[in-house]
Amino acid sequence: MRYVLAVADHGGFRCAAMSLNVSQPAVSKSVQDTEADLGYKIFDRHPGGISLTENGRMFVDDARKVVAQFLRAIRSARRNDEDAKGHIIVGYSALAAPQQFSPGLEAFNERQARVQIEMHMRSLKTGEIDVGFLLSHPSVRDDDISQSRLWTTRIGVICPRGHGRPTLDGLRQEKFVMGLRENWRSFRMILDVACEKADLVPYIVDEAWDVHVIFQRVAAGRGMTLYPMSIRDNLPATLEIHEVEGFDAELTIAMAWSRTADTQLLQSFRKIYHDLC
C-alpha cells in the first residue's frame, strides 16, 4: 500500500522509488503484484506518465486510511512504552525555513514538556505525520486536509558568494539549477507564473531532487537558483541570496493537518503557531 501511495502522490515510479529510498524495479514489481492480487489495474501507463484508474482511485482512498491507522497504532504503542504524555510527528517542506517554525516548537515544548515531537520530510496524506508545514498552493489542496496560512516570503535568487547583486536583465543571460519538476511541482508552477510576468525564460542546465544538491551545484558555479528569501540565515557560507528588482514572486507556507485525524493535542499545537503569527 505504501508503494502504491508513493506512486500516486509522486506521479511516477521513479520519483516514488527515490522518496522511498528503494529501487524503481522494486516499486514497479510491488505495484504489479498488488494489481495482480486485486484483479484490476491501479494505474494506466502511457507515454506521458501514469494516471489512476477509477478502481485505482477508490483503492488509493481506502489505502490512505488503512496506512494512517496502522502508523498511528505503531506510534501509540511506542508512546505508551516510553511513558510519554503524547507524540506528534511534524512534517516540513524544504521551502519552510527552520527559523520560521522553530519558535513554535520551543513554545510548545515549554507548555507540554512530556510530549515527544519528531520532525520528518514526509507526506501528510499517507498518515506518516500528524501536522505539516507546506507550500500553500491550489495544486496541493486536498478535501481531507485542512490548511491554515502562517507566513508569506518573497522569492529571491541564490548565487555563489561574491557574485554581486543580480539584475533582471542579467538573469536573462544566466544559467539556472532548479528542483526537479516532479518533486518541486507546486513551487515550479509559482516560478513559471513569476517568470512569465517578468519576461524571464530561465536557461535550466541542471535539475535535482534534493535541495542540498541544488545548493551544492550553485556553489560549484553550475548556475543560480530561485528560492524563498527566508532561507537567508540558513544558507551555506558559500552562497548568498538577493531580491531582484522587477522579479515579483512570493510563496506562502501553511500549516496542514488531516480533518479525520485531528486531536486535542494537535489543536493545542496549532493554537501556539496561530498566536505567534
Task: Offer a concise description of the structure.
With 277 residues, the chain is of the alpha/beta class. The chain is built from nine helices and eleven strands. The protein is globular, with a radius of gyration of 20 Å.
Notes on the structure:
- By secondary structure, the chain is an alpha/beta fold.
- The chain has 2 domains: 83 residues, Arc Repressor Mutant, subunit A (Orthogonal Bundle), CATH 1.10.10.10; 192 residues, 3-Layer(aba) Sandwich (D-Maltodextrin-Binding Protein, domain 2), CATH 3.40.190.290.
- Helices cover 41% and strands 25% of the residues.
- The protein has 9 helices and 11 strands.
- The strands form 3 sheets. Strands 3, 4, 5, 6, 9, 10 and 11 form a 7-stranded mixed sheet that branches. Strands 1-2 form a two-stranded antiparallel sheet. Strands 7-8 form a two-stranded parallel sheet.
- α5 links the parallel β3 and β4.
- α1 packs across α2 and α2 packs across α3.
- The radius of gyration is 20 Å and the shape is globular.
- It starts with a helix and ends with a helix.
- The model has no long low-confidence stretch (mean pLDDT 85).
Helix content: 40-55%
CATH level-two architecture of the largest domain: 3-Layer(aba) Sandwich
What is the straight-line distance between the termini? Answer: 37 Å
- What is the number of helices? 9
CATH secondary-structure class of the largest domain: Alpha Beta
Give helix and strand order, one letter per element, not per position.
HHHEEHEHEEEHEHEHEEEH
Mean pLDDT metric: 85
CATH-derived topology of the largest domain: D-Maltodextrin-Binding Protein, domain 2
Supply Rg: 20 Å
- List the domain count as a whole number: 2
User: What low-confidence regions span 5 or more consecutive residues with pLDDT below 50?
Assistant: none
The total of beta strands comes to: 11
What amount of the residues lies in strands? 25-35%
Outline type: globular
Structural class: alpha/beta
- Major β-sheet, in short? 7 strands, mixed
